[in-house]
C-alpha cells in the first residue's frame, strides 16, 4: 500500500511540475509587421520583448535584471510598466511614464480596445490594448522596437 501511495504522490508531483512549466512557457512572439492584432497582456508583450533578438538585446542592456528572461519580464510587468529610460523629458520623445502617456492619449480621444497600428510595412508588431495597463505595456514595447531598430517611430 505504501508503494502505491508513493507512486501516486510522485505522479501527482510530476503533473504539477509539468503544469507549472507549461503555464510559464512563453507564447510565440508577435511578428514584426504582423497583420493580426496581438493582445497587450504581460505574456504577449514579454514574449515579444524576450523573443525578438534585436529588441531583447536592447531591453537587456537598458533594463538590466528586469527583462532578461520571459519570466523576469512577466514579474516586472506584474508590478507595473517600467519607466521608459530613453528620451525622458524630451518634448518629441517617447520616454518617461508610459502609463501617464496612455492617460494623456485617452484625453486625446483614444478609447479601448485600441489597435496600435503603424503605417503598412512598418517593422513593428501589431498590438491591441484593452485598457490603460495594456496600453502602457504596448507603448513600452513599441519604444523598445524603435530604439532597437535605430530610433523611435515617427
Walkthrough of the structure:
It is a single chain. The protein has 154 residues and is mostly helical. The protein has one domain (27-148). The chain is built from 6 helices and 3 strands. It has helices spanning 2-23, 42-51, 53-62, 70-78, 98-107, 132-148; strands spanning 38-39, 114-116, 127-129. The chain is globular, with a radius of gyration of 19 Å. The termini are far apart.
- Walk across the major sheet and give the strand order: 1-3-2
| Rg, alpha carbons | 19 Å
H/I helix tally? 6
Number of domains: 1
What attributes does this structure have?
single chain, 154 residues, mainly alpha, 3-stranded mixed sheet, disordered N terminus
Lay out the secondary structure.
Blueprint: H1 2-23, E1 38-39, H2 42-51, H3 53-62, H4 70-78, H5 98-107, E2 114-116, E3 127-129, H6 132-148
Parallel strand pairs: 1-3
Antiparallel strand pairs: 2-3
Task: Describe the structure in brief.
By secondary structure, the chain is mainly alpha-helical. The protein contains six helices and three strands, in the order αβααααββα. Helix content is 51%, strand content 5%.
Amino acid at each position: 500500500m505504501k508503494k502505491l501511495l508513493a507512486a501516486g504522490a510522485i505522479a501527482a508531483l510530476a503533473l504539477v511540475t509539468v503544469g507549472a512549466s507549461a503555464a510559464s512557457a512563453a507564447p510565440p512572439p508577435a511578428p514584426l509587421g504582423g497583420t493580426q492584432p496581438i493582445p497587450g497582456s504581460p505574456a504577449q508583450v514579454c514574449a515579444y520583448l524576450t523573443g525578438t533578438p534585436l529588441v531583447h538585446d536592447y531591453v537587456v542592456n537598458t533594463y538590466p535584471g528586469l527583462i532578461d528572461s520571459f519570466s523576469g519580464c512577466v514579474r516586472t510587468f506584474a508590478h507595473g510598466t517600467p519607466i521608459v529610460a530613453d528620451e525622458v523629458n524630451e518634448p518629441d520623445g517617447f520616454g518617461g511614464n508610459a502609463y501617464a502617456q496612455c492617460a494623456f492619449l485617452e484625453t486625446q480621444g483614444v478609447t479601448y480596445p485600441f489597435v496600435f497600428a503603424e503605417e503598412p510595412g512598418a517593422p513593428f508588431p501589431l498590438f491591441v490594448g484593452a485598457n490603460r495597463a495594456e496600453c502602457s505595456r504596448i507603448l513600452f514595447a513599441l519604444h523598445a522596437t524603435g530604439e532597437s531598430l535605430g530610433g523611435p517611430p515617427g
